[in-house]
Amino acid sequence: MSSKGESLSGSDLMRWVDTADGHIVRFLNRWSVPALRIALGVVYVWFGALKLAPDLSPAEDLVRATVPFLPGRVFLPVLAAWEITIGLGFLSGRALRLTILLLLLQMPGTMAPIFLLPDRVFTAFPYGLTLEGQYIVKNLVLIGAALVVGATVRRDRSRSRTPAGVAGGRPEPGAPEP
Fold it and tell me: How high is the mean pLDDT of the chain?
């Protein structure tokens, strides 16, 4: 409705929807990756901290069973410190390349139970996952999120070195042709 009590025409409504959509997309472009980075940091600090307290981490038994040749009293605190370091890297936004490298180096170990302990991961191979299996498979989301964050590490630097209206060497949507 306009201020005079008139109804919106179809084209007015479409312009309003398009404008609202533009605002939403700009908001998401600005805040989605930082939110993803912070969420990764919180998850890693939290899960790492749980491994520091005996019998508090739901993954403790699975970790011990996956690497029985490593003493848990030594390995779990090292793994906890590794995860907390990853989390702090994401939370701080500093050294993201190193942070993502640490995450990617950790992932084969987190996926190992799929191959080493299938009886702990599957109720019915290959689709039925136990709770531990679901805990492991969710790491695919963490990998994907880390890749998204990693894709932005050069964004600020590339924008400062390119002409106005160009990001990373490509024209931004809606920018005039150079």
Answer: 88
